[in-house]
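Researcher: Here's a chain I'd like modeled. Treat it as a single chain, no partners, no ligands.
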Amino acid sequence: MSSTPLPTPTFGGGYADGEERPRMGFFTDTSVCIGCKACEVACKEWNLVPESPLEWSGASYDNTLELGANNWRHVAFVEQPGPAGAQGPADDGMHWLMSSDVCKHCTSAACLEVCPTGALFRSEFGTVVVQEDICNGCGYCVPACPFGVIDRREDDGRAFKCTLCYDRLKDGMEPACAKACPTDSIQFGELEELRERAAARVGELRRQQVDQARLYLADPEDGIGGAGAFFLLLDEPEVYGLPPDPVSTTRDLPSLWRSAGLAAAALAAGIAAAFVGGRR
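Model: Modeled as a single isolated chain. Structure tokens:
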């Protein structure tokens, strides 16, 4: 992993009341997710996200398959052999690992950093939001995301992703997905308080001999500076289709530009020396 310091995020949007607001986010506890997909439905209904094609994917009960411009929430169903908590392969039935995935609202958000129009901005809640009326469809943000979250709609080319229900937050409401979750698998609140709650939950599960329990993206020192949406997983991140050690795709750009500048300066000096030498 690169040792380049992560940029400090700028929380834009201003404060109407003159007071700084705490950073808000999601804590998703997959140990209590029942795969009901209420979050997917609530997200689409509130944000007017176009419906997904009604097709059978053949991948268990997962017909959304991945996040995208028309899927701001995705409930993953991961089938595993044996009873829940089994170590290694087993023939005694099977079980599911279920998790509702969403945009991570990274501290170091590469999608925001590469946007040439300012369509993506950091809100006063610390979230990353796309302004649909400013997006020009350049698509730079799509490959910049280390999680493959943001994407463009085929019909108009503009980029879309979860806004963490920015409009609801401004009115003092919790995001639609968290409001609809019947088991509190999706928890919304101040990020620091959520991290404390998540650590306590991992300790509780470990005491129940759920040794696989772990937090993902809760560490502010990781490759994206920590996320505004983090998870409690019951297996390795790869099992859920998540990158094990994500790194901001723009974190090395400052050092690369410095190296390029030094190389250009050295080249210019060499050309000048050769020119002066050739005139003697």
